[in-house]
Amino acid sequence: MKDRLEFFPVTSYAVVMGLTGLTIVTGKYYHLQWMPKLIAHGMLFFSLAVFLLISVMYGLKALWFFDRVAEDFHHRIRVNFFSAISISFLLQSIAFLAYWPILSLVFWWVGTIVHTILMLYTIGFWIRHNFEIQFMNPAWFIPVVGNILVPIAGVEFMPATFSFFYFAVGIFFWLVLFTIFLNRAIFHHQLPEKFIPTLFILLAPPAIGFIAYIRITQSWDFFAALLLHLTIFFVALLVVLFRSFFGIKFFISWWAFTFPMMAVTIAMAVAYQVTAQDAYKYGSWVMFSCAVLMVLFVSYHTVLKIRAHEICVNED
């Protein structure tokens, strides 16, 4: 067990992000009277249990193999996945907001503080090191996504100005990083097979940005519609690229499929709430169905990999 923990990947928090995203969707559907209370509350505590389990395991790795954690923290690619830890706290905060506000507040403060530190460190890491363009991949968006998540629960705990700060930083770096990624994707070598599933991360910034903007402003306006329809465009783009996802070997990074799909599902549900247009309701259900199928698919393959002892291995 201890030997396996040496190579326990920080990318495991992508599992927490996917399951907690599903939890938030079921909670949203319950409040819209689209889903039974039992499913919503069952997912709430199941995702919390997975979050605590992975946190304990990674904490033990940090205790017993600190040098390995430090090595990941200075790795040109894996450094971006550390923000998935703080994002997991923020997602738990959103999930528990309506059910247990005090616990939500604790998760939110921990997530916000940790994410701020990790986000500043990661951007500093990018600036201090010389990167070739091939190092750029959608995982770089993870620290950005965390910023945009802060306002969703944060509007309940802090003034709107506080939320606007994180929203502005997140939107700014999303635009900058997307420009760099588009340059890398079109004019340079293709993404390595392991990172092809992370293309789904492209869905998350506009979808979460739309939700956060609605939470902050309580307004359906031009900018809200812009973010929502950019989200729909990225969904269409990934449908066109669907052949790229066939025949690739399973990695834990496949969980990157799940959370962005949940974000789009929620964005569509929120759009239905504020516009009462049935197209958004049906769009939300289509995305939800696809997301659930994907969670079942990657869960099955993750279990197979665990049983085959192919998860906690040296990736170098």
List the keywords.
single chain; about 325 residues; mainly alpha; Glycosyltransferase; about 70% helix
Per-chain topology:
Elements: H1 2-5, H2 13-31, H3 37-64, H4 66-73, H5 83-96, H6 101-128, H7 142-154, H8 160-187, H9 204-217, H10 222-240, H11 258-275, H12 278-307
Helix pairs in contact: 2-3, 2-5, 2-11, 2-12, 3-4, 3-5, 5-6, 5-7, 6-7, 7-8, 7-9, 8-9, 9-10, 9-11, 11-12
Protein architecture, described:
By secondary structure, this protein is mainly alpha-helical. It has a single domain, classed as Alpha/alpha barrel (Glycosyltransferase), CATH 1.50.10.150. The chain has twelve helices and no strands. Helix 5 runs parallel beside helix 7 (142-154). The protein is globular, with a radius of gyration of 18 Å. The mean pLDDT is 88.
Question: Quick recap of the structure?
Answer:
With 316 residues, this protein is mainly alpha-helical.
